[in-house]
C-alpha cells in the first residue's frame, strides 16, 4: 500500500497515512486528486479506479470514505478486506464508531492503524491481538499519568463517548 | 493571552466556526498559544499541545514549527509523550527533512528499551519514515530483534526489515537467515511478517530466490493447515481462516514457482485444493481465489490447473458484483496474449460489459475487446465497438477510435467495409481521431478505384448532413474534388445515385468554405476541391473562377496564396489547367511522407519500385521531379501542408498522356521526359559503343534556357549496373543535373535510363558538352567520355 486516506463527503481529511516519501506539496495534490476522483463516483460503481500507475481502492462507510492506493501486484479484493478490518477494529475500540469518534480521537485512530498496518503491509491478522495491544498501551499510558499526577503535571485522558468531555487539569500549587 | 484550551474543546471550536475566516482565526490563536508553550520549559502539557498541532496540521495548516518539539518529545521518558512524539514524527517529519536525522539516536535507544510498547513505537516510526542512512545505522538492531524477542516485537521487526530492504537493497543479505527461521513460528502475525519479508528478498535478489525455493514445501504445509483447519475465532473472516496470510503465501508461491518446474509441481495439488474448496460467495473468498488464479497462471502449472483457473475467471465474469467483473477482466487482459483461445470463449460476456454503467468496467471491457478482435469475429465485434463509440464516455473516445482503426486495418474483410467503418467513426467521433487518419483514409480511397463512385456518393451525403466534424469534411471535400464527375454522372452501382447538379456540389463546397465551423486546413481542402472541379464540370466554370478570385484577397494567408495560384492557372496557364488538375495517381505509402522541400533524388528512388495499379495510366511517374519544375514555373511557392494536400495542390502529379493534345506543349514547357520507347520528339544518338547507346534530346524552354535529355540503353546480352553520367560545359554556361531515372540497364534494351540536364546559356556562347559515362558490366568497371558539339533543336 502506498497511502491510506480517510475523508468525509464534504472533503475534510480525517486521517492520512503515507507509506511513501512525498513533499507536503505533493501530498496536498494527491489528496485533492483523490477526493475529486472518489467523490465524483456514482453510488453503485465498482470500488476500483486507476490513477497514474496506482490502483485505488475505496469504500464508503456511513459518511466517511476510506481510500487506499495499491501497487501493481497488490490484490484489490484483499485491500477491500483490509479496509473492512480496520473499520471493525475502530468499531471494537470505540464501541459503535462514528465519524465524530475519529475526529475527536484522531490520535487513537492512528495508534490503532499502527497496530494493524506497518510500512504499507498488514502487521497483525488477528482482531483480538490488536485490541489487546491497544488496551495494554493505553493502560501503560494511564499508569504513567497517574504516576505523573502526583508530581503535578498536565494530564490528558481520552474521550469516551458515553459521557461528556472530561478534561482534568491539575495545577501545581 | 487566554489559557490554551484542551484538545477536545479546540476541535469543537474549530468545527463550530461558521466561516473559513472564523476557523482560521481560532487556529491562529491556538497556534500562537502552542508556540508559546513550546518555548517554555517542560510543563507536562506538551503531548497535549502537540496533539492539537497535529490536528491543525491534518486540516491542512502549516505546522512545521512542531518538528523540533517532536524530537524533544520522543526523547522524553514518559510513554504518553513518546507516543504523541512519534506520531508527530510520522506526520510532520519525512526523510527529506533534516530534523529526521535527530531522532535516529532516540530510536536507537528505544529499540533496546525494556518496555515492548516503547520498542514498538520506535520500530513503527522507523518503518514509516526511516531514511536510507537511518536504516543502515539501525539494521543490525533490527536483525537482533528479529531473532531474540517475543512475537509482538518479532512481527514488527519483520515489517521494519521489509522497509529497510526496500530502502537499502544490499541489506537484504543481512536478514535472509533470520527470515528463514521465522517460518517455523506459530504466531500468525510473525508468520505473515516473515512471508512478506521473504517475498521482498526474493523479488530483489535472484540468488535469494534460489535459496528460498527450498521453503516451498514448508509454505505448502502452512497453507494446507490454514485451508483444512477448523474454525479459529481469532483469524476467521467469513469462513476463511486468515485470508491475509493465505493471500501472501500464495503470492510468495507465485514468485518462487515462476520459472521452476520442480517448485511448480510441489504446489500443484495445493493450488487445486484451494481453487476448488474456497467458498466464493463473499468478497474474502474471491480475494483468495483471485490470488490463486494469478498464481496458477504465472507458474509452470499443468494444463488441467490452467483450465480450472480460466474457468474461475469466467465465473467471475458472470458475477453480479461489479468489482469481481472488473478483477476478472484485468486478469484476462494479462493472459489474452498467451491463452488467447481460452479468453475468446468469454468474448460474449466481455462485450456485454461494454454496456455496463460503471466507467472502470467499461474501460477494462474496451481494452479486452480490442485485444480479442480477430479475423473471424471482426464483423460482429466492429458492430459492438461502433455501438459503444456512439455512447461511450468522452475520455474513452480517442482510445476507442484508434483501436477501431487498427482493428479495421488489420482484419478488414473487404475494402468497402473498411471505408464504411472509417466513415462511421468519423461521423460519430470525428473530433477525437488522430491527425494521420485523414491522409490514411485518402490513400485508402484512392487505392480502391472500383469504389470511387460509391465513396463520393456517401461522402457527399455525409457532407450535406453535418459539416462540423473536421476530418470527415476534409476527406469529403477531397473526394468531391477528385471524383466530382462521378457524382454528377448520376449513376452508381453500389449505392443509390444522387441527382445532383453542378450547382449543388459547388454550393456544398462553398458552405464549407464560408462556415465558421471549418478549420483553416479544411477550408484549404475545400478551395482546392472547388478548383479541381473546374476541369470536371462543364457549365459553372465561371462560378469557380469567381470563387477563386474572391479568395485571392482572403485574410488567411494560406487560402490567399492558393487562390492567387489558382487564379494564375485560370489566366496565364489555362492550357495547363486540365493536366495539372487531372485525376490523382495512386499514392504510394512512402511518397506520402514527403514534403516539397525534399530532394528529388529521394523521391525518384522511392517511386522506383512503384507498381502500377490497374485503371491508371500505365506510366511510371516521378511526381517530385515535376513538382520541382512546376515550382520553378510558379515562382517557387512552398506548400507547408499535409502531404496529401501537397499532392492535391498546385503540384499534383502529372500522368503524361501520350494521346493528349496538351501533351506536346506540356513536354515543351516542362521538359517532360519519356522513359518508354515511343518518344515523340526526335533524339540523336551521340554515343554508341560496347552495346551502350546514348541518345540526346534537347528542348529550348526559354531564351537562354535549354533542357537536354540523355537516354541510355543497353543492347548487350548482359545487364549493366551502376550506370552514371557526368556532364561538363563551358565556363559561362550554368549546368544543373537532375537525378537520373535509375542506374540499372537490363540486357537487350528492356529498359532505359534517362538523365535530364538543365542548361542556362545567358551569354549565348557556343554550346558544347562533355559527357562521361561510367558503368559496371559483367563484373568489370568501364568508363568513357563523349563530346557533344551540336545540339539538335537549338
Count of DSSP H/I helices of chain B: 37
Mean pLDDT of chain B: 80
- What is the β-strand count of chain B? 10
Strand order of the largest sheet of chain B: 3-4-5-8-7
* Assembly level: heterodimer
**What percent strand of chain A?**
15-25%
Shape of chain B: elongated
Describe the structure.
The complex is a heterodimer of chains A (173) and B (794). Chain A is α+β, with helices and mostly antiparallel strands and 173 residues long. Helices cover 43% and strands 20% of the residues of chain A. Chain A has helices at residues 24-39, 76-94, 99-104, 106-116, 127-149, and strands at residues 3-8, 13-18, 48-51, 54-61, 64-70, 117-118, 121-122. In chain A, the strands form two sheets. Chain A has a five-stranded antiparallel beta sheet, with helices on both faces. In chain A, helix 2 packs across helix 5. Chain A starts with a strand and ends in a 24-residue tail after the last helix. The model of chain A is unreliable at 153-173 (pLDDT under 50). Chain B has 794 residues and is of the alpha+beta class. In chain B, the strands form three sheets. Chain B has a five-stranded antiparallel beta sheet with strand order 3-4-5-8-7, with no helix packed on it. A three-stranded antiparallel beta sheet of chain B has the order 6-9-10, with no helix packed on it. In chain B, helix 30 runs parallel beside helix 32. Residues 591-680 of chain B have low confidence and may be disordered. Chains A and B meet through strand 2, strand 3, helix 2, helix 4 and strand 7 of A and helix 1, helix 3, helix 5, helix 8 and helix 10 of B. Chain A: It comes from Solea senegalensis (Senegalese sole).
Key structural traits:
heterodimer; A: about 170 residues; alpha+beta; five-stranded antiparallel sheet; two-stranded antiparallel ribbon; 5 helices; globular; disordered C terminus; B: about 800 residues; 37 helices
Amino acid at each position: 500500500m502506498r497511502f491510506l486516506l480517510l475523508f468525509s463527503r464534504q472533503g475534510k481529511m480525517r486521517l492520512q497515512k503515507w507509506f511513501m516519501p512525498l513533499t507536503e506539496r505533493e501530498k496536498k495534490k494527491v489528496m485533492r486528486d483523490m477526493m475529486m476522483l472518489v467523490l465524483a463516483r456514482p453510488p453503485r460503481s465498482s470500488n476500483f479506479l486507476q490513477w497514474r500507475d496506482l490502483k485505488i481502492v475505496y469504500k464508503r462507510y456511513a459518511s466517511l470514505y476510506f481510500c487506499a492506493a495499491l501497487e501493481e501486484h497488490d490484490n484489490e479484493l484483499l485491500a477491500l478486506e483490509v479496509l473492512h478490518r480496520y473499520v471493525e477494529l475502530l468499531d471494537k475500540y470505540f464501541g459503535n464508531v462514528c465519524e465524530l469518534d475519529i475526529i475527536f480521537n484522531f490520535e487513537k485512530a492512528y495508534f490503532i492503524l499502527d497496530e494493524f498496518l506497518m510500512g504499507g503491509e498488514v502487521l497483525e491478522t488477528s482482531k483480538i491481538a490488536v485490541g489487546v495491544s491497544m488496551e495494554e498501551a493505553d493502560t501503560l499510558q494511564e499508569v504513567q499519568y497517574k504516576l505523573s499526577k502526583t508530581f503535578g503535571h498536565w494530564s490528558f485522558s481520552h474521550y469516551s463517548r458515553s459521557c461528556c468531555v472530561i478534561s482534568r487539569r491539575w495545577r501545581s500549587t | 493571552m487566554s489559557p490554551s484550551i484542551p484538545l477536545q474543546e479546540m476541535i469543537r471550536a474549530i468545527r463550530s466556526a461558521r466561516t473559513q475566516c472564523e476557523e482560521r482565526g481560532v487556529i491562529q490563536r491556538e497556534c500562537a498559544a502552542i508556540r508559546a508553550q513550546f518555548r517554555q520549559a517542560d510543563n507536562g502539557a506538551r503531548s497535549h499541545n502537540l496533539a492539537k498541532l497535529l490536528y491543525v496540521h491534518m486540516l491542512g495548516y502549516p505546522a512545521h514549527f512542531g518538528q523540533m518539539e517532536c524530537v524533544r518529545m520522543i526523547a522524553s521518558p514518559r510513554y504518553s509523550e513518546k507516543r504523541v512524539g512519534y506520531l508527530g514524527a510520522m506526520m510532520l517529519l519525512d526523510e527529506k527533512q533534516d530534523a529526521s536525522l535527530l531522532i535516529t539516536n532516540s530510536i536507537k535507544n528505544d529499540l533496546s528499551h525494556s518496555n515492548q510498547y516503547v520498542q514498538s513505537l520506535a520500530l513503527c516510526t522507523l518503518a514509516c519514515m526511516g531514511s536510507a542512512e537511518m536504516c543502515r545505522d539501525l539494521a543490525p538492531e533490527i536483525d537482533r530483534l528479529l531473532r531474540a524477542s517475543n512475537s509482538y516485537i518479532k512481527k514488527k521487526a519483520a515489517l521494519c526489515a521489509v522497509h529497510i530492504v526496500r530502502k537499502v537493497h544490499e541489506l537484504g543479505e543481512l536478514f535472509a537467515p533470520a527470515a528463514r527461521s521465522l517460518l517455523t513460528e506459530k504466531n500468525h502475525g510473525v508468520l505473515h511478517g516473515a512471508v512478506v519479508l521473504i517475498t521482498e528478498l526474493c523479488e530483489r535478489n535472484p540468488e535469494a530466490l534460489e535459496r528460498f525455493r527450498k521453503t516451498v514445501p514448508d509454505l505448502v504445509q502452512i497453507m494446507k493447515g490454514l485451508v483444512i483447519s477448523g474454525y479459529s475465532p481469532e483469524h476467521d473472516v467469513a469462513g476463511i481462516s486468515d485470508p491475509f496470510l493465505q493471500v501472501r503465501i500464495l503470492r510468495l508461491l507465485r514468485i518462487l514457482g515462476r520459472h521452476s518446474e520442480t517448485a511448480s509441481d510441489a504446489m500443484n495439488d495445493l493450488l487445486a485444493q484451494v481453487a476448488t474448496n474456497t467458498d466464493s460467495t463473499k468478497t474474502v473468498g474471491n480475494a483468495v481465489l483471485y490470488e490463486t488464479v494469478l498464481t496458477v497462471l504465472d507458474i509452470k502449472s499443468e494444463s488441467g490447473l490452467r483450465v480450472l483457473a480460466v474457468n474461475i475467471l469466467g465465473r467471475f465474469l458472470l458475477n453480479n458484483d461489479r468489482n469481481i467483473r472488473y478483477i476478472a477482466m484485468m486478469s484476462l487482459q494479462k493472459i489474452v496474449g498467451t491463452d488467447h483461445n481460452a479468453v475468446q470463449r468469454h468474448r460474449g460476456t466481455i462485450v456485454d460489459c461494454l454496456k455496463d454503467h460503471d466507467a472502470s468496467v467499461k474501460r477494462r471491457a474496451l481494452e479486452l475487446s480490442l485485444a480479442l478482435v480477430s479475423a473471424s469475429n471482426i464483423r460482429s465485434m466492429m458492430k459492438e465497438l461502433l455501438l459503444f463509440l456512439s455512447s461511450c464516455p468522452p475520455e474513452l473516445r480517442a482510445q476507442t477510435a484508434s483501436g477501431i482503426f487498427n482493428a479495421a486495418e488489420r482484419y478488414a474483410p473487404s475494402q468497402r467495409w473498411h471505408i464504411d467503418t472509417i466513415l462511421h467513426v468519423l461521423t460519430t467521433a470525428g473530433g477525437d481521431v488522430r491527425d494521420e487518419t485523414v491522409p490514411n483514409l485518402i490513400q485508402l480511397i484512392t487505392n480502391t478505384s472500383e469504389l470511387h463512385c460509391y465513396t463520393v456518393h456517401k461522402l457527399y451525403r455525409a457532407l450535406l448532413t453535418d459539416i462540423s466534424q473536421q476530418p470527415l469534411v476534409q476527406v469529403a471535400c477531397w473526394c468531391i474534388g477528385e471524383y466530382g464527375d462521378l457524382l454528377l454522372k448520376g449513376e452508381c452501382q453500389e449505392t443509390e445515385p444522387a441527382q445532383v447538379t453542378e450547382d449543388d456540389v459547388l454550393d456544398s463546397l462553398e458552405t464549407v468554405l464560408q462556415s465558421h465551423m471549418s478549420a483553416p486546413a479544411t477550408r484549404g481542402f475545400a478551395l482546392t476541391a472547388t478548383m479541381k472541379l473546374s476541369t470536371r464540370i462543364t457549365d459553372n466554370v465561371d462560378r469557380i473562377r469567381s470563387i477563386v478570385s474572391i479568395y485571392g484577397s482572403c485574410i488567411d494567408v494560406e487560402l490567399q496564396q492558393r487562390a492567387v495560384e489558382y487564379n494564375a492557372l485560370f489566366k496565364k496557364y489555362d492550357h495547363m489547367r486540365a493536366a495539372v488538375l487531372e485525376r490523382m495517381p495512386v499514392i504510394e505509402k512512402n511518397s506520402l511522407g514527403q514534403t516539397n522541400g525534399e530532394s528529388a533524388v529521394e523521391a525518384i528512388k522511392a517511386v522506383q519500385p512503384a507498381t502500377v495499379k490497374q485503371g491508371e495510366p500505365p506510366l511510371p511517374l516521378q511526381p517530385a521531379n515535376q513538382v520541382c519544375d512546376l515550382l520553378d514555373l510558379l515562382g517557387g511557392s512552398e506548400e507547408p501542408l499535409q502531404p496529401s494536400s501537397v499532392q492535391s495542390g498546385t503540384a499534383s502529379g502529372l500522368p503524361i498522356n501520350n494521346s493528349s493534345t496538351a501533351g506536346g506543349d506540356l513536354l515543351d514547357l516542362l521538359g517532360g521526359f519519356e522513359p518508354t520507347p515511343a518518344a515523340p520528339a526526335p533524339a540523336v544518338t551521340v554515343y554508341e559503343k560496347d552495346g551502350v547507346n546514348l541518345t540526346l534530346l534537347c528542348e529550348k524552354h526559354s531564351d537562354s534556357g535549354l533542357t537536354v535529355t540523355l537516354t541510355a540503353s543497353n543492347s548487350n546480352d548482359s545487364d549493366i549496373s551502376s550506370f552514371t553520367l557526368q556532364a561538363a560545359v563551358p565556363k559561362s554556361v550554368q549546368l544543373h543535373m537532375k537525378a537520373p531515372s535509375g542506374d540499372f540497364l537490363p540486357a537487350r534494351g528492356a529498359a532505359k535510363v534517362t538523365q535530364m540536364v538543365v542548361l542556362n546559356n545567358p551569354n549565348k556562347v557556343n554550346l558544347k558538352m562533355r559527357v562521361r559515362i561510367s558503368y559496371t558490366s559483367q563484373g568489370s568497371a568501364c568508363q568513357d567520355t563523349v563530346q557533344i558539339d551540336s545540339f539538335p533543336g537549338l
